[in-house]
Amino acid sequence: xxxSVGRLGSVSLDCADPRALAAFWxxxxxxxxxxxxxxxxxxxxxxxxxxxxxxxxxxxPQWPDxxxxxxxxxxxxxxxxxxxxxxxxxxxxxxxxxxxPDRWRVLLDPAGHPFCVTTLIPV
Length: 123
Prior knowledge:
This protein is an alpha/beta fold. The protein has 2 domains: about 10-55, 2,3-Dihydroxybiphenyl 1,2-Dioxygenase, domain 1 (Roll); about 60-123, 2,3-Dihydroxybiphenyl 1,2-Dioxygenase, domain 1. It has helices at about 20-30, 80-90, and strands spanning about 10-15, 30-35, 40-45, 50-55, 75, 95, 105-110, 115-120. A 4-stranded mixed beta sheet has the order 1-4-3-2, covered by helices on one side. Strand 2 and strand 3 (about 40-45) form a beta hairpin. It starts with 9 loop residues before the first strand and ends in a 5-residue tail after the last strand.
């Protein structure tokens, strides 16, 4: 195994409203908002920051077709129905295209980023 240069310290999500998106991901993943500004917010998770960054004229990705998604997050869960219910209550929307709904559900965060809740990854 090659010795690494470092470790992944953060993942940043472009958006129009950093505070709202940080609050959503705190509801989804836990953690604590440690930076809270108009320009960006940071949610501290176990050894990783999830950063939400204001981008002028932000255009959300269109999944599965349209403006590319660039990447997405997978949230490991034990109960798909409960995870979906809680995500929707927190402000997510359900994507129209659901290629594997018995194993994962495709949702969109409030800024339009696609993410999945899945039972395929051990919790």
